[in-house]
Amino acid sequence: MAEDELNELRGMTVELAAAYASNTNVRLDPEDFQKLIRDTFATLSGLTTAQAEQEPAETTAPKSKAEIRKSITPDALISFEDGRPYKTLKRHLTVRGLSPAEYREKHGLPADYPMVAPNYSAARSQMAKRLGLGQKGRLSNAVLKPSGGRAS
């Protein structure tokens, strides 16, 4: 561990221990406070070590055109991560720590690979049109235009 990282860990340890001691009603003996500092430092240094030891993101072989075609059904998209169907992949990917671009790159998918099932997208579009979403400019111009009559 570099000296800068070690100093940063020490600073965080002191801040955490001081915050705990000042915000708790329990009186700590000097030995207990030292143990708290040692345990906090060990935990923080273990966290940074675990982050450094994480393996780089694994890449898989690019998917064939047939596999890509089969993964897109009218009602769902089949995830290449777990093989389960989803109406939208974005939340599923976020939970797994992937962005849509990373997912496409990881599995060798084209840039235009959809993240939302076609039927779900169409249903959302129809609902938005029924509600008049996206019509603000057109509607406000119609309302603001004078009716041609004179104001009294």
Automatic annotation (TrEMBL):
Record InterPro entries: ROS/MUCR_sf (IPR041920), ROS_MUCR (IPR008807)
Query: Where are the compositionally biased (Low complexity) regions?
Result: 48-62
GO MF annotations, alphabetized: DNA binding; zinc ion binding
**What are the recorded Gene Ontology BP terms?**
regulation of DNA-templated transcription
Gene3D superfamilies on file: ROS/MUCR transcriptional regulator protein
Region (Disordered) residue ranges read 48-68, 131-152
Name the source's superkingdom.
Bacteria
Entry's family note: Belongs to the ros/MucR family.
The protein in question is named: Transcriptional regulator, MucR family
Q: Which organism is it from?
A: Brevundimonas viscosa
Taxonomic lineage: Bacteria, Pseudomonadati, Pseudomonadota, Alphaproteobacteria, Caulobacterales
